[in-house]
Amino acid sequence: MSCIFFTVLSHYKYNVKVITMQYIVLFFQQKISFTNNFTSINIKKAPEVNRTL
To answer: Which domain of life does the UniProt lineage start with (predicted)?
Structure first.
């Protein structure tokens, strides 16, 4: 009984790790795309900034 419980618990921990990793990756992808959009909007708004880059 305890063995089954332990395997279920370890499986649950593994799933939580995988889910949190996926959420972290998703969050970073969204953050990167947001910053890219933000910088592109700023460059479009201010061409003098684009010249200095």
So the answer is: Bacteria
Separation CA 40–CA 33 (nearest Å): 10
Q: What is the pTM of this model?
A: 0.42
Number of H helices, E strands in the chain: 2, 0
Q: What is the Cα gyration radius of the chain? A: 22
pLDDT at 7: 74
Q: Which residues contact 42 (CB under 8 A, 6 or more apart)?
A: 49
User: Which amino acid is present at 8?
Assistant: V
Alpha helices in 1-53 (DSSP H): 2-45, 47-52
| Residue matched to tokens 């010249």 | 51
